[in-house]
Amino acid sequence: MSEQVFTSCTVGGAISVYVKDGKIVRVRPIVIDEKDMKPWTIEAKGKKFSPPKKVKTAPFAMTERIRVYSEERIRYPMKRVDFDPNSKDRRTQNRGKSGYERISWDEAINIVAGEIKRIRETYGPEAVTGITSSHHNWGTMGYKTGPFMRFLGSLGFSFVFDNPDSWEGFHFGAIHTYGYFWRLGCPEPYDMLEDTLKNAEMVVYWSNDPAATWGTYTGGESQIWRLWTREAGIKQVFIDPFCNYAASTIGDKWIAPKVGTDLAMAFAIAYVWIKDGSYDKKFVDGRTVGFEQFRDYVLGKEDKVPKTPQWAEKICGVPARQITALAKEWASKRTILSCGVRGGFGGAMRLAYGHEWARLMVLLAAMQGLGSPGSGMWGGGMGGPFDGNFFFPGYADVDGRLFSTRAANKQINNPVQQRLYRLFVPECFTNPPVEWIGEGFCGQSIEQQLKPYKYPLEGKSEVKMFYRYGSSFIGTMTETNRWVKAYQSPKLEFLVNQDCWWGGETKFADIILPACTNLERDDIAEFGNAGGYSAHGSSGANWRIIVRQKKCIEPLYESKSDYQIFGLLAEKLGVKDDYTDGGKTEMDWVKRYFEISDLPKRISWEEFDKKGYYVVPVPDNYKPTPAYRWFYEGRPCDTPDYLNPKRNTDKAHELSSYSGKIEFVSQSLAKHLPDDKERPPMPRYIDSWEGPASPLAKKYPLQLMSPHPRYSFHTHYDTHSSWLKEIPGHRIIIDGYAYWTVRIHPSDAEPRGISNGDVVRLYNDRGSVLGAAFITERCKPGVVHSYCSSIKYDPLEPGKPYSTDKGGCVNLLTSVRTLSKNAPGMAPNSCLIEIEKWEA
Amino acid sequence: MTKKYGMVIDITKCNGCYNCFLSCRDEHCGNDYLPYAASQPMQGHFWMRVIEKERGKYPKVKVAYTAIPCMQCETPTCVAASMNGGAYQRDDGIVIIDPAKAVGQKEIVNSCPYRVIYWNEEKRLPQKCTFCAHLLDQGWKEPRCVEACPTGALIFGDLNDPNSEVAKLVAGGQTEALHPEYELKPKVKYIGLPKRFVAGEVVFKDKQDECAEGVKVTLKGDGVEKTIKTDNYGEFEFEGLAVDRPYTVTIEHKGYAVKKIKAKTKVDVYLGEILLSKAVAKK
Question: What are the start-end ranges of the E strands in A523-682?
Fold first, then answer.
């Protein structure tokens, strides 16, 4: 058979897939006909910047072929050997240690459908819950918001709110400062690349490694932007306890506060500006509220503690003179503050009181005139020239989700009212009742994150069955021995896991169902565009590409597409018609998504399907509308930020905070939580509950920081793509085992007798994890850097909570305590540990 | 004129993403391209190796990533060491280890001072980067590693074409060979190979809360003398210095005693905080 080339897309970029004799032989960045690429040009500082006519992926996208053929694929439906659906005793205590036997699809579907039926009939629909992991595949139709949600929604189930994960501080802090709840607190990104190159003199990347977070979903596309920034003569300063990948290669200056003390440094910068009078007084007067109270606090009038650089030095370990120098340089140069998602996801907001740091970021940007030329706020991973008026749904858009899209004849509304909160699911399974506030991702309003919840709902059943899709929680949530315990809870009568690959959680399930990857089924999606809360995310790519994701090969082994698997269950459970929207095939859905988008205005279905892609050009008469320029200038919002509720109204010149302005004293917090000492109406410095100044530091003197990984995405790729094991920044092979990389400064390694390449044990009262020591000057002394998101949970004693994990899930060590009492976001970077050389 | 393929690797543009390494693996692992190359094993070979070099000490740290494919030497030692045409150079300059004729010739691996030839134990075969010759011969413009590089740090082309980017970079005199002392005329050239730096932070002993900006710092040694002023953080850096040479750093500022520090560039030197004391008034 001759070679065929298919188009597809991954979380790390659009690809071309070469297939020979039914086998994938090559995966390369998507090949686009040069005629379809009309490059834009930014002229700045006497230079012209234009992207190359190529598509750039993230590294892991280049491993897609071996990920599909991974040894760790789940091949067949499996049943835990000591699980008997006909017995009352489910032997839940054996979850995590028992082996599995292969069963047929018929048997598997009968058991799963039978259990769903039994549990619904016995306890009510509330007793069934389920949740997916994120990001293992790509595709508007088939993503986690697709078949899984349409199936369970058709049935009715206890929905699990996702806790905001990765931008916690902005969600729980910035929203109360400048609004932007529809972006979950993150800044709008529009045309900030051009504004930076043209107008900025300095970029301060604060808790941001744009060389590690890949614009989230836009692969390697924006990597060249940092080189252009350098070429334009713009100074690039990095604030991070770890000399991150961008800092160590293109950084002009690295400043390293202790983990979680960035807030003190931020206050000291404000202090210098107030003392020097070097802030934008006109902007502060006209566009903000509460500055006087903030000023008095900073100067020490409130608590007799002036927030001087000397004060901050004692907390953060950065010499006062360096803080002062940075503050003065920042005030004297047009400076972009680079933080706040799509490039951001920084650890400084994923720790104790991380919302206060995020609030300070907005406030510092305000003090320098947020939105004036070259003085914006920009993560660095979106904001290229972009046609924001062309519509194609991302999977997180209302029109992208299979259950709510107008691509369907019938939208599905889950009738069940009971809710769980992802971060506390283990407590729901082991120790209910559980209370929290907020509806997870609170993109609808400021008040949404203040709504109280309780599980179980009055008069409703607790959950008895968990339909788990994926295996990421032990590697991505906090204090994750909780999950090991929860999975063994006798309350959980039935546990399914569906996935393409084996991972840390798979081995707890009673029934395991093998799904195929998105290279084994049909779909349609846009490179980099998740939609919804990060609207226009594909502006982080130089090319806006909508991809017809082709089925490249038949599903491997006995795997099936998620749409098929849930179709089989829906049929057994009598909801097939709702689930399939009257009998739609996967290709029917793909065509419907095409039809509801703007694509038919530009290209026929036949041509699109044949070519495999459409590149949305930047219009010839493109007029940049830089983020916040409208607000700075007091004009109505002119950016294409379509979810901004005030846009195109008579209040379009306002922000969506309560005052319509930037709030040094938050009006929303003052109204709803005036007595909250941890997140008071006006931000204040508070020592971390687990930091270098805590009593616990005597026992566990090292600070563990665990940012998002660089060479894998979330928990994906990792050991499923074996080549990554040979990248020492990712894993290090010792005696044939690929250990997770643990970075430590020589001054911390030496007294512990740790040498480079040693197997080490990281531990505290919450867990024990093995890794490979990578001794480096890039860590601030006292800081251990080890990425979160190992997919491999490999306990030395399987099924035993608190067993030492050989796989590298450092999240076992982190605390479940949230940012603050009323801000239920994860705080994994407030984590004290000790390290020792491991002698097996 | 015939083509002569070459590559320029600009280290100043590389942030170590490993796209080159991974796309090379994607092309060659499990895929035979005879007669160019047999498949690369799934583990253990680095036809495109990335070396991470950490420079300096906390808090003055830089990282340089050096990507190392086969250097495609004009006078290749592997060809000289091979028997029966086990390795040969094509007219376009690409050096190929013949996957059939080189079987069993382990000495080819050891002949390469750059250590870019790997032994395939299973196939009893020496193997290395081919510049993706099998693709170039099909009309591709560049090897997989170059296509995948997000920052344009890898540049590929015809060294005999004066209009090609590689030829221009080489003609511009910015490029250099890795280990020129081997004298093998590699057709892979580098920009920004890491040299050595000497850096430090000047602090006025009597004003430690202020950065010592604008202090005159002179570096002398190895036939060079450079003078710079400290920046707004009181910091100075002399980059691109020779390896393992003695230098003297002289720090002078009005009203302060002159300070001289010796530095040897065996590795990059970060002198840390350098305290300047007030000059003692002469009696």
Answer: 523-526, 544-549, 613-616, 662-663
Among the listed residues B155, B184, B151, the one whose alpha carbon sits nearest the alpha carbon of residue B7? B155
pLDDT digits (tens, 9 = 90+) for A185-235: 999 999 999 999 999 999 999 999 999 999 999 999 999 999 999 999 999
**Virtual CA dihedral for A141, A143, A145, A149, nearest 10 degrees?**
90
Contact across the interface for A321 and B63, Cβ inside 8 Å: no
Tens-place pLDDT, residues A612-622: 999 999 999 99
Catalytic status, residue A165: yes
Active site residue A135: yes
For residue B11, give the DSSP letter. G
Q: What is the mean pLDDT of residues A658-678?
A: 98
Cis amide linkage into residue B59, ω under 30° from 0 = yes
Which of A201, A240, A249, A322 is the mutation pick for testing B, counting most B CBs within 10 A? A249
Distance (Å) of CA A298 to CA A246, A317, A600: 32, 19, 56
Q: B6: which strand partners?
A: B157
Rounded distance between C-alpha atoms, residue A682 and residue A674, angstroms: 10
Query: Per-residue pLDDT tens for A686-744?
Result: 999 999 999 999 999 999 999 999 999 999 999 999 999 999 999 999 999 999 999 99
Q: Do A321 and B203 touch (CB under 8 A)?
A: yes
DSSP, res A4: E
Distance CA A665, CA A399 (A): 37
- Rounded Cα distance between A70 and A722, Å, is 8
Angle at A581 (CA atoms; ends A576, A585), nearest 5 degrees? 85
Q: Looking at chain A from residue 15 to 34, which residues have their Cβ under 8 Å from any Cβ of chain B?
A: 25-29
Q: Which of B10, B14, B17 to mutate to test the interface with A (most CBs of A within 10 A)?
A: B17
| Residue A716 backbone dihedrals phi, psi, to 5 degrees | -90, 160
Q: Answer yes or no: are the C-beta atoms of A379 and A285 closer than 8 Å.
A: no
On chain A, the residues whose CB falls within 8 A of the CB of B30 are 25
* pTM for the model: 0.98
Residue A344 has pLDDT above 70, yes or no: no
- Chain mean position to CA B281: 50
Alpha carbons B158 and B152: distance in angstroms, whole number: 17
CB of A539 closer than 8 Å to CB of A642: no
- Chain B contact set for A326 (CB, 8 A): 233
Residue B83 and residue B60 in contact, taking contact as beta carbons nearer than 8 Å: no
Query: Which residues of B fall within a CB distance of 8 Å from A725?
Result: 43
Tokens of residue A601, six digits:
């205005």
Chain B nearest C-alpha distance from A783 (Å): 12
Which of A297, A395, A711, A793 is flagged as catalytic? A395
Question: Which residues 6+ apart lie within 8 Å of B116 measured at CB?
Answer: B47, B49, B68, B69, B70, B71, B128, B129
Q: How many CB atoms lie within 10 A of CB A71?
A: 10
Taking only residues 733 to 792 of chain A, the set having a beta carbon closer than 8 angstroms to any beta carbon of chain B reads: 745, 776-781
Whether chain B has a CB inside 8 Å of the CB on A54: the answer is yes
Chain B positions touching A322 (Cβ under 8 A) are 211, 233
Nearest to A512 by CA among A89, A95, A93, A70: A95
User: What is the phi/psi pair of residue A83, to 5°?
Assistant: -100, 125
Q: Is A445 exposed, middle or buried (0-12, 13-18, 19+ CB in 10 A)?
A: middle
Which one-letter amino acid corresponds to residue A344? G
With CA atoms as reference, the chain B residue closest to A213 would be B17
> What b/e readout covers A169-199, taking b as 16+ CB neighbours within 10 angstroms?
bbbbbbbbbbbbbbbbbbbbbbbbbbbbbbb
Of A136, A143, A165, A794, the catalytic one is: A165
